Records
---
Amino acid sequence: MRLASILAGGAAAVLLLVSGCGGSGSSHGDAIAFVSTRDGDYAVYGMNADGSEQGRLTDERGDTSTPAGTTFQIAPAYAPDGSKIAFASAREGSLDVYVMDADGSGTRPLTSGPSNETEPAWSPDGSQLAYQNDQNGDHVFVMGADGAGSHRLTTDLAPEIEPAWSPDGRWIAYSRRLPGSEIREIWTVHPDGSGRHKVTDLQGAAYAPAWSPDSRTIAFSGRTGTKAFQLYAIGVDGNGLRRLTQASEDAFEPAWSPDGQTIAYSRAGSIVTIDAGGANVSVLTDPDGNDSSPDWNPHPAEGEEPS
């Protein structure tokens, strides 16, 4: 369950104050982008894969005296070539999708209007973005990387959120709520809207699908009953479900490293990593920063990928 999805339903159309228009210029790693409120507002930060060189990427600041300051800069997603980061922002009132250069400069909007648009996910060739739009209910849309040609992906009446594009380009995974129920499962659909089908059968809540680099496995955050959210992994064919985390705190927002060996996620205000088998937990950031929404750079600087 991603921060943007939690907040989007209640995001009010309020104005935010903006200062600055470029990158922060502070020292930061570029292996993982994430969201933090350590400076008061929600902003995008970068760090190395081991948690070193944490620094702010974005100069723009939300007005922290307003509720919408909590959605000022969220849900970062690196482009496949690592040159850009898409994200969502409520700086003009409702949430819209923006894109900026990977150093935080050159920010520009890709969507506009009264609906809330968030959770951008790049196609593997970088030419398109899938995203979540709450126009007439939450659904998955696709648009060009320049914001043109936006269209709804499926005609399903069920709420659909948190799209994730498979690295091989064949599928878009998303979280779908069963109409009239609180049950959510992970589904997949081809980018042309065909072939949609259910992947998980958790009979609980399944959020935030994330693809392994080989497109064979989907990690997600899920729970059954009233237990804490845990990370799970499942084959794209729906087989081989396994639980990755065993913590008492909720585990959200999984993201695979480019080499497929490590998964970053958010837990109790920190960015945490585990290996793909669920072992070797490492806490990368201080929980006091209220950090969330990690995303790996497909092409970080040399030596920044996990060993």
---
Amino acid sequence: MKDKIISKASNLFLKLGFKSVTMDDIANEMCISKKTIYKYFCNKEILIEETTETGLKQINQTIAKIVANNHNAIEENFEIIKMFKEMFNSIETSPSYQLKKHYPEIYQKLISQSKTECHSMFQQNIEKGIQEGLYRNELNIQSHVYFYYALISSINENIVSEKESKKLELEALEYHIRAMATPKGIIELEKHLKTPHL
């Protein structure tokens, strides 16, 4: 039952917003009593925290599957961007923006949990791109990891519209890759920028 509540709450939070959805809304949607929800979650903040942690785990698992598919480094980045776009396609307001505005403590905890994962993923991608001849050999990897993370974080924290956020994330990815790419990498980048599903 706990997993079902998390799943339903997650859908409602993403569709209607973390602030707007009440425990009554979740109970009504599931045709259960509010008391049942409180049996597992003593308040809405705990439910939001567990929901976002579960969502983060699912995202990390999906990214790991993409990485395991052995795409080249640039294609891998675009597959991850595509995954995020599909995952949040029907959402109007950026979940990160909502959390930061209405539940800053939960947001900060989530950021601290995801930062290490993000840095590791960005570093592995850059190292892979260098080996493939898509990124330049002489790159300061840690600097580029830091710059890209700062860009993506700023977009997610400050842009209200999820659609605008995803558009800017794609432009940030292009900016990031162009700063690192070899001529071979630029050709690969241009190929993916022409892909209509982005």
---
Amino acid sequence: MRQLIPSLLVVLLAACRGGHTESPVQAPGADKSTKTKALEVGAAMLQRAPPIGALDMYLDGFHFYNGHRDSQMEAHHYCSALNEEVNQCVIYDGNDKNAKIMGVEYIISARLFRALPDDEKPLWHSHAYEVTSGELVAPGLPEVAEHALMQKLASTYGKTFHTWHTDLDKQLPLGVPQLMMGFTQDGQIDPAMVRTRDERFGVNTAEKRKERADIKPPPVEPGADAWQEGEVVQFADPTSGAKGHQPSRAKSQPESEH
């Protein structure tokens, strides 16, 4: 089966995981018992976990709640390639053993995106700007390998749902899943959040932008990034303090900078 990234990159990604990022929340509950720890050790020795082992691509980027662009957060993606045109990612709020699963993202090629029904396309966001701006990184990966990976990702599209909103300091996965989007132009993302990420990983987003100047993704396909046109697709969340109090599909004013 052909992979989205070459086999060499898989090996490099498995070996390079980048800087340490802790989860921002502590889940309530009693400490693990001796019995639970023993069961974990036994399971690790005796049980195979092929789906987890296939998560060989690590990406770090940023998301915001669809309809709430001021609510932004860093997202750690652990992905696997199902084939040349489809990837699936588990998203965490950190990269250590206590990281919380925040959600999932599905990544598809432009060809598959074009074939989607028109009413499905607003759920998806482009990756072109995330790549060319330097915001999306593969921590720890050598530059030549990361560049090849980003060249491939620049023309893809993602559908992302967050299920545990740890950016809101929620200790448990409360509320309903929320549709997330990616940034599409300068001036949208909080620069302090990017600087904090860069310092932690020892990367420079501005320098990566320059290094990726030769990556020229095709124009974004019609229907993607629909939030820019004022179309907000979101689950209405009846729980107190949750983001995304939107009808299932609402029409708001287009983004002023679009």
---
Amino acid sequence: MTPTHLSGRPAIPSLPTVLDAFNSAPAAEARGLLLDCLRSLRWADRIAAHRPYPTVEALLAASDEAAYDLTPSDLSEALAGETLPVLPDGAYMAAHMAMDAAHAAYESKFGHAFVICLDDLPPAEALDHVLAEIRSRLTNDPEEERVVASDELRRLAKGRLVGLLRGAGNCATSPNGAAPNA
């Protein structure tokens, strides 16, 4: 088949993207990459099993759907794989102590790590936001908090998938680095 010519120039075949590499990776490799995004075996297996994804948007939609379907056991498994957000460089010792104390209170009440997605937050605001959210969410009852934590895990997984797909010069994401329509 001869390439189509536009304005007297041959068409340039599209370059493979990170999404293409993810779609064609062996199942075990794709599953491993997905487990770096969310530590739920069921979620990772489900996303890997439904490849190939035609677009980043389709992959992110599948991620959301699979995250919404996490059972309480799946959610516990995913929460067990999470750690407290890292404090920004230069945070004072008092900030570390406040974060440790707030997290200890949270973990004591709910039995799992505090999870929060900070993707759209400037790093300078992260510490105050995390501390305020821990304090606020400590007022939740355990069932309310499981719903909030599940939503935060879903947002974290989506952000991590975007980061995974961003790759070096990957055209699967928009020029500003965000997934299209994400």
